[in-house]
Write a structure and sequence with these properties.
Helix content is about 45%, strand content about 15%. An eight-stranded parallel sheet has the order 4-3-2-1-8-7-6-5. The protein is built from eleven helices and eight strands. By secondary structure, it is an alpha/beta fold.
């Protein structure tokens, strides 16, 4: 299939919906993920994306998975790519392979440092920040569409919201054609952030990232890691449902549905769903929003 550059999709003036997956660790995990992808394909997403892991084997799996999704499922697929642990030469090699596989969209990120080395340290000959990676991609022989990550509640390492916004301006100047936000649970944070970004002359589409709470342990842990605040009202509803998995799910889906509905009504250019490789919650949100 001929993949679309995602940046072009925003010009159609219709919301751009996307689903994020991560490379599973086992062959069985791959089989199950492809069942999830088949179920979510029925929702006709604009694109899907595949995260970049910290370890060597998961990294190879990103290239394999993103290529297979595009080739076998016929969906436009975007590869995430981080600066962690790779030299310029290694990154260039990965970009060559992605191009050979027909991938035309790459999300360049700094990446999170390995757990045993909490302060991010670039490898010798590597990149320190995502804007350097974006610049490298656009200075090279490739022709990728590159978005970037952004943080409505401010990145956890940033000295201040103002410093974080300056970093974001650097990424957009380097060639980020649209932005995908870190997950958040309070739309006020996204709306205020978009206003601040527009005030800093950032004109590119800013797609909200949504992750419904589907467990009392897993998602709150991820949210904490991402620096995403769970509002007291949502936390109260989740706590009241604790011990009843179906009720927790219902609370998470209901909250995410309300978030998506309001975001689209208020002009968000699409929604990026953090799926955790599962389909039911995303399908129910779609059902609530569109009756699909
Ligand atoms: P950067 O933009 O480089 O920012 C990192 C920090 O440095 C920020 O605090 C920023 O303010 C600061 N900074 C940036 N530039 C400068 C500068 N020039 N001088 C001083 N300070 C600066 N992680 C993965 O490992 N794999 C994934 O696949 C993945 N996918 C993601 C997808 C999305 C949509 C999002 C929102 C995040 C994802 N992450 C992923 C997490 C991300 O890698 C981490 O949040 C990481 O810590 C920051 O990445 P970044 O690209 O935003 O970094």
């Amino acid at each position: 299939m001929l993949a679309m550059k995602i940046g072009d999709l925003f010009r159609r003036g219709e919301p751009v919906f996307s689903f994020e997956f991560s490379p599973p660790k086992t062959d069985k995990g791959f089989e199950s993920l492809f069942r999830t992808i088949a179920e979510l394909k029925r929702l006709d997403p604009s694109f899907v994306s595949v995260t970049w892991g910290a370890g060597g084997s998961t990294r190879r799996k990103t290239v394999e998975l993103v290529s297979r999704i595009q080739r076998e499922a016929g969906l436009t697929a975007m590869a995430h790519l981080t600066c962690v642990g790779s030299t310029r030469e290694e990154i260039a090699g990965i970009l060559d392979r992605l191009r050979e596989e027909g991938i035309v969209n790459v999300l360049p990120l700094r990446g999170d440092p390995p757990k045993d080395q909490p302060d991010f340290r670039p490898v010798p000959g590597g990149f320190r920040f995502a804007n350097e990676l974006i610049e490298f991609i656009h200075a090279g022989p490739w022709d990728f569409c590159t978005p970037a990550a952004c943080y409505p509640e401010t990145h956890t390492d940033a000295a201040s919201p103002e410093a974080d916004l300056k970093s974001l301006v650097r990424k957009v100047r380097a060639g980020a054609q649209f932005l995908i936000t870190q997950l958040f649970f309070d739309n006020a944070d996204y709306l205020a952030f978009v206003e601040r970004a527009r005030g800093a002359d950032i004109g590119v589409p800013i797609v909200p990232g949504i992750m419904p709470i589907t467990s009392t342990v897993n998602v709150p842990r991820i949210a904490k890691m991402c620096g995403s605040r769970v509002p007291a009202e949502l936390q109260g509803a989740v706590d009241a449902a604790a011990g009843d998995a179906a009720r927790v799910d219902a609370v998470g889906v209901e909250w995410a549905t309300l978030q998506c509905r309001e975001l689209l009504e208020r002009g968000a250019p699409g929604i990026h769903f953090y799926t955790l490789n599962r389909s039911p919650a995303t399908r129910r949100i779609y059902q609530n929003l569109f009756g699909a």
